């Protein structure tokens, strides 16, 4: 079995049930889910509030299109706009992260009348043609070209290169506040603030892709809130429905006013809307973002103490943590799963990514640290 096979869908672990931060196979073996299946379950697996809301809604009214007013959609909308950074007063629902970014780029183009998109090296914004055009990795793009062009890439975190790229013809700058797939890259203080100023001066839209960083993961509801930056467009998906397929785009008024025709058949369907309402209101009311901040600090401190020189760096914010290894991350992820019953994700070749459900407790975090320590120590032994 190659490393690639393992991470691309043939994991030899047949899961049957989930609860909190744990996943179980049919024989009852528990796995600690330190990846939340790509950050999709911030409240943990099969959270009762979400399960109940979805079960009720699917029985009452599974679907009507978005031209009919229904309570589930109105509640989801109200919860999302209330939880969004101040200044983002309108939102539109879609079904995934790539669709959210696709819409964001379309809205920016129609509101500005310009076409150029500025994106960052090592970005990931999704795999449909438009979002893919703003995604960095050639492996994802090359076989599908030509894409929806006019994208200029600048080195992530470099304010001077960003300043040089943003001009009067720029429709949007699209950035992840912390890069996820690209390796948990945290930009220096001031980067997002500068991006905010540059786009405002140029009349361009600042699009922040919070598909991975949002929903409380970094210790604030949205990662941009650490910098006090409000984008013109914020995109979210992954954890928005705690595992149901839903995304959203929250926008400032000038973007909403300038948006041309755009929609999707399943936009804000009642069942996913019920999941969004339950997820967002539970996260906010039970203050899970603050818990993520505390647990993230605990986890990083413990990891640094336990791993020391066995790794190059532990970085991140809240419960979005990257460990820069001295060797391949796929292999470490596989050994963690097979020998320690801990599920983690690679983010690039040498970074192991931890994005557990926000509901993990200190015992879970300690288990995670022990599992990583055992795995990385044994790998180091095997190497020498
Ligand atoms: C996963 C991800 C996407 C794409 O989301 P999909 O739901 O897979 O389309 C976009 N942006 C970021 C930052 C992501 O992590």
UniProtKB/TrEMBL annotation:
Binds 1 pyridoxal phosphate per subunit. Its EC number is 2.6.1.118, 2.6.1.124. It is found in: Cytoplasm. It comes from the Archaea. It catalyses: [amino-group carrier protein]-C-terminal-gamma-(L-lysyl)-L-glutamate + 2-oxoglutarate = [amino-group carrier protein]-C-terminal-N-(1-carboxy-5-oxopentan-1-yl)-L-glutamine + L-glutamate; [amino-group carrier protein]-C-terminal-gamma-(L-ornithyl)-L-glutamate + 2-oxoglutarate = [amino-group carrier protein]-C-terminal-gamma-(L-glutamyl-5-semialdehyde)-L-glutamate + L-glutamate. Its cofactor is pyridoxal 5'-phosphate. One of its GO terms (biological process) is L-arginine biosynthetic process via ornithine. Substrate binds at residue 127. Gene3D superfamilies: Aspartate Aminotransferase, domain 1, Type I PLP-dependent aspartate aminotransferase-like (Major domain). InterPro entries: Aminotrans_3, Aminotrans_3_PPA_site, Class-III_PLP-dep_AT, LysJ, PyrdxlP-dep_Trfase, PyrdxlP-dep_Trfase_major, PyrdxlP-dep_Trfase_small. Keywords: Amino-acid biosynthesis, Aminotransferase, Arginine biosynthesis, Cytoplasm, Lysine biosynthesis, Pyridoxal phosphate, Transferase. The modification N6-(pyridoxal phosphate)lysine is found at residue 238. Pfam families: Aminotran_3. GO terms for molecular function: identical protein binding; pyridoxal phosphate binding; transaminase activity. It is an enzyme of class 2 (transferase). GO terms for cellular component: cytoplasm. Pyridoxal 5'-phosphate binds at residues 97-98, 124, 209-212, 265. Pathway: Amino-acid biosynthesis; L-arginine biosynthesis; Amino-acid biosynthesis; L-lysine biosynthesis via AAA pathway; L-lysine from L-alpha-aminoadipate (Thermus route): step 4/5. PANTHER family: ACETYLORNITHINE AMINOTRANSFERASE, MITOCHONDRIAL (PTHR11986:SF79), AMINOTRANSFERASE CLASS III (PTHR11986). Homodimer. Belongs to the class-III pyridoxal-phosphate-dependent aminotransferase family. LysJ subfamily. Involved in both the arginine and lysine biosynthetic pathways. This is Putative [LysW]-aminoadipate semialdehyde/glutamate semialdehyde transaminase. The gene is lysJ.
């Amino acid at each position: 079995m190659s490393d690639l096979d393992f991470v691309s869908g043939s994991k030899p672990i047949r899961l049957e049930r989930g609860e909190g931060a744990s996943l179980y196979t049919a024989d009852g073996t528990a796995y600690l889910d330190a990846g939340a299946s790509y950050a999709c379950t911030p409240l943990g697996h099969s959270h009762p509030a979400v399960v109940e809301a979805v079960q009720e809604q699917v029985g009452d009214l599974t679907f009507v299109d978005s031209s009919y007013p229904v309570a589930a959609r109105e509640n989801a909308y109200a919860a999302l706009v209330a939880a969004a950074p101040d200044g983002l007063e309108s939102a539109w629902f879609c079904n995934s992260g790539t669709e959210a970014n696709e819409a964001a780029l379309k809205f920016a183009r129609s509101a500005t009348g310009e076409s150029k998109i500025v994106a960052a090296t090592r970005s990931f914004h999704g795999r449909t043609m438009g979002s893919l055009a703003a995604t960095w990795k050639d492996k994802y793009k090359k076989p599908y070209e030509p894409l929806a062009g006019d994208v200029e890439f600048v080195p992530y975190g470099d304010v001077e290169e960003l300043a040089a790229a943003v001009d009067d013809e720029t429709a949007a700058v699209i950035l992840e506040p912390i890069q996820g797939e690209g390796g948990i890259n945290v930009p220096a203080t001031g980067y997002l603030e500068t991006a905010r100023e540059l786009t405002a001066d140029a009349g361009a839209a600042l699009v922040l892709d919070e598909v991975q960083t949002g929903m409380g993961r970094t210790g604030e509801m949205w990662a941009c809130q650490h910098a006090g930056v409000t984008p013109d467009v914020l995109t979210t998906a992954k954890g928005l429905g705690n595992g149901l397929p839903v995304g959203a785009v929250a926008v400032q008024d000038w973007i909403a006013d300038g948006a041309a025709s755009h929609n999707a058949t399943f936009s804000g369907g009642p069942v996913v809307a019920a999941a969004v309402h339950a997820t967002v209101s539970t996260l906010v009311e039970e203050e899970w973002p603050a818990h993520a901040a505390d647990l993230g600090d605990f986890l990083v401190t413990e990891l640094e103490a336990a791993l020391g020189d066995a790794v190059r760096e532990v970085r991140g914010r809240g419960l979005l943590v990257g460990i820069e290894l001295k060797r391949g991350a796929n292999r470490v992820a596989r050994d963690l799963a097979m020998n320690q019953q801990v599920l983690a994700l690679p983010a690039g070749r040498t970074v192991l990514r931890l994005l557990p459900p926000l509901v993990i407790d200190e015992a879970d975090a300690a288990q995670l640290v022990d599992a990583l320590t055992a795995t990385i120590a044994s790998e180091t032994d095997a190497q020498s």
